[in-house]
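User: C-alpha cells in, sequence out, please.
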C-alpha cells in the first residue's frame, strides 16, 4: 500500500513560501540536508505529510506553478477544476476567518450534497489550494 511521502514546491523565495505554509496550515520546519548552493526548506505537517520547498532553478525551464502559465488568470474560482492540493480541517469557519484576516482572496463552494464546504485560494507563488470541511458522515 502506498502512502504520501512529500510534496515538493519550487519557489524563487523559499523563505516566504515556507512561512506561508507554517502560518496558514501549521507546518513545522524540520531538518533538511545541506545541498550546497541549492536552498531548500523541509516542512512537516504532523500526522499528515512533508513538504519540500526548493529554490527555483530557472535553467530547468519548468513552470513555477499553474499560475505562471502564459495569460494566467489569478482567480480562485477557476481552481475547483484545476491543479490544487486539498487539506481538510475540523473547524472550517474558523479557518476561513483566518484566511480573511490575512487578506487572502478566496472562492467558496460546497459539494453538490452540501455536506462538505470548500474554499479555494492561491499560495504566494500562485499554486492552487483547497481547504475542505471534514465530512460529517
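Assistant: Sequence out:
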Amino acid at each position: 500500500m502506498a502512502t504520501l511521502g512529500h510534496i515538493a514546491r519550487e519557489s524563487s523565495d523559499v523563505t516566504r513560501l515556507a512561512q506561508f505554509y507554517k502560518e496558514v496550515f501549521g507546518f513545522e520546519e524540520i531538518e533538511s540536508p545541506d545541498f550546497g548552493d541549492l536552498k531548500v526548506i523541509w516542512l512537516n505537517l504532523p500526522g499528515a505529510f512533508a513538504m519540500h520547498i526548493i529554490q527555483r532553478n530557472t535553467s530547468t525551464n519548468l513552470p513555477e506553478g499553474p499560475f505562471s502559465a502564459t495569460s494566467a488568470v489569478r482567480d480562485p474560482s477557476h481552481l475547483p477544476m484545476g491543479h490544487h492540493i486539498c487539506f481538510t480541517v475540523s473547524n472550517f469557519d474558523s479557518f476561513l476567518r483566518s484566511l480573511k484576516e490575512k487578506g487572502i482572496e478566496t472562492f467558496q463552494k460546497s459539494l453538490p450534497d452540501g455536506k462538505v464546504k470548500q474554499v479555494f485560494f492561491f499560495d504566494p507563488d500562485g499554486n492552487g489550494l483547497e481547504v475542505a470541511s471534514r465530512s460529517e458522515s
